[in-house]
Design a protein that fits this description.
14 helices; 2 domains; single chain; Serine Threonine Protein Phosphatase 5, Tetratricopeptide repeat; mainly alpha
């Protein structure tokens, strides 16, 4: 059973007190251990948006070294937002904490983004360039920040770079460009999820690249991973993923259903002479590649049960 941080005002007030936890280390596990209620061995995929936000609040005072007045203002903003959440949804029902369109989402999702912009003006400039469609300038600014010693700045810069490269690829890029975006996003998923509230965007970009590359089997599994392994998924993202899964199901059927069926297909490939002139080679290669994605999906399902 997944454990999350407990609700309630006592823990919120504790954020404003001097810290009595282990010093924050850049390593993800060490950071997680500094928060009461988060169990040993929990990974970033097990944490909620709220969990990550409170980890970030601890980080900015311990690592970013912002002045006490600014820190207290940020904590007050967060506590007021949480009070509003509990007033609107006293039983925790009907809330969509990751939706930036709701009052709660404004606090939880935009809170981290706004705080990083305030503390690091260079990141605010990167976001402004991206929003203005100045992709080359945004790419240059993102590369300068991607090597930051602050893991939150580096992770947000990396996600902005992935977004920049994807938008550039949409404007007449090659298959290699989309493949490059996927590799970049896979690295973000592997090492930066703890530091990102919108970590689901990296997973979604991978699925969108599979769509551009016309790899429906891989796209199907990627959307299944998105819906399985990402907590507090925004409703608009969830609805879009479900709609795309339904469309892909009509196109390719339920792709082989079980791992055993996938392995049977691979066995057939091993005994078949596949050449470059074989018109089915692309589909067969997708099946082989999708095995890794199926394993990733199965691991996500096991973590959630």
């Amino acid at each position: 059973m997944k454990k999350t941080l407990a609700r309630g005002s006592p823990r919120l007030g504790a954020l404003a007190l001097p810290f009595l936890f282990t010093p924050v280390v850049v390593l993800g596990v060490a950071v997680v251990l500094a928060v009461p209620g988060v169990a040993w061995g929990q990974g970033p995929g097990d944490l909620t948006v709220r969990d990550k936000t409170e980890l970030f609040i601890q980080h900015i005072v311990k690592v970013s070294k912002i002045d006490p007045a600014s820190y207290q203002a940020l904590v007050l903003e967060y506590e007021l937002g949480m009070a509003l959440q509990e007033l609107l949804h006293p039983d925790g029902e009907g809330e969509d904490p990751a939706s930036a369109d709701s009052p709660v989402g404004f606090v939880l999702v935009d809170f981290v983004e706004r705080a990083i912009k305030e503390i690091h003006p260079a990141y605010a400039n990167l976001v402004a360039l991206l929003e203005a469609g100045k992709l080359e300038e945004a790419r240059e600014a993102g590369r300068a920040l991607a090597g930051s010693s602050d893991p939150y700045v580096a992770a947000h810069a990396a996600l902005a770079l992935a977004e920049t490269d994807f938008r550039a690829a949409q404007k007449g890029g090659t298959d290699a460009d989309f493949q490059g975006v996927m590799k970049f996003c896979e690295r973000i998923v592997a090492k930066d999820r703890l530091y990102l509230i919108r970590d689901h965007r990296a997973c979604e970009l991978i699925a969108l690249c599979f769509e551009k590359l016309k790899k429906p089997l891989l796209e199907f599994v990627q959307y299944a991973i998105l819906l399985t392994d990402y907590n507090d998924l925004p409703k608009e993202v969830s609805d879009k993923a479900k709609a795309r899964l339904a469309a892909l199901n009509d196109e390719v059927g339920r792709p082989l259903g079980t791992v055993a069926n996938w392995m049977n297909e691979v066995e057939k490939l091993l005994v078949k002479d596949v050449t470059k002139n074989d018109p089915t080679q692309r589909q067969e290669t997708e099946i082989v590649s999708a095995l890794d994605k199926l394993i990733e999906l199965q691991e996500a399902r096991e973590r959630k049960t």
